[in-house]
# Entry
Amino acid sequence: MQTRELYQKILNIQEPWKVVAVELDVEEPEVQVHIAYLEQKPPCPECGHPCSRYDARRRRWRHLDTCEYPTFLVTDVPRVQCEVHGVLQLRVPWAAMGSKFSKPFEALVIDWLQVASTSAVAKVFGLSWESVDGIMQRAVKRGLQRRRNLLLPLPKHLGVDETSFRRQHDYVTVVIDQDDNTVIHVADGRGRDTLDTFFEGFPESQRKAVDSVAMDMWGAYIAAVTEAVPGAEHKIAFDRFHVAGHMSKAVDKVRRQEHKTLKAREINPLTGTRYLWLKSPEVLKGEQLEKLDLLKDSSLKTARAWAIKELARSLWHFKTRGWARRGWLRWYSWAIRSRLEPLKEVARMVKRHLEGILTAVVLGVTNARSEAVNSKIQWIKYTARGFRNRERFRNAIYFHLGGLDLYPQSSGR
# Structure
């Protein structure tokens, strides 16, 4: 098989496009694959009506290397004069619109971007950072458009979380499908509009069919879901780890206050005990467990705060809403009478959001998958050494975690 015919087959090029020459430029060095358009009356790219040629413009696309030589596809791309649509350039079958790379080359770069940073991939292929980022942007745009074309229904189980874009409380809102752990929506900020825009894309029948929305106790998210999802009062689920985080912070605040008071009296039983009160007893061993056993039965305020926290930790096993409500209200009664202000603040928060906590209990819903996605987002941000541009940050999230079909069609992969 001649080299021209081989490239014709590899590139999956059909008439009227034809590979007419393959040249090795030793001075560059590079391989040039010359492609010609043979039809005299090309169709309009918009309406398909045969048109006269207007002119042609030479273009080059980077292709997969040939025997370690950089390879370029070269052709004079015709422009046509359409009576309806004016002067338009023909679309080539081996590259996406606006791309300087062939589809097989873009597919290879996308494979590399799955496991390496943009800078690393640029170095491997000898490209600029902007070129590799452009491939990622086109891949995400292509993937999102394909997902929209599928008209996928709203997932039954949603998770909503925020993740930091940069420091100083700069956030993006992330919505995931908790059934397959993929990101389905990313929006700037964490205001109500970030979710309003998302839910507006689905009819009421689909919003009504949502079974649960796991989130933290952020008022803007609660308001948006309450407005958009019928019956949201029994579908919003506040994550147990979010509640546990508030409990732990309250216990630590009590410990710090008490440690400061005791230290002034030169009594230091709480010195070096911070993590004893914050970790689960199951993970403590040896001297740590013995020390906790000794302190938890003392008259320390911290010991009382820890006991309240541990009781709350045991309240996630209920199967019915009624029993769960009784358990949490008993816990609330103890916490609010504890005379420990940090615990009383948490108790008030729990009472305000009790229905969402009960929903999480009886449905067994957690935001653990959203937190796992958030951890992956932090990894993406770390490997990229941060993002200065919000759009690129969103694209990176969709690229790695959106479950999108990223590859060009007929890429020859």
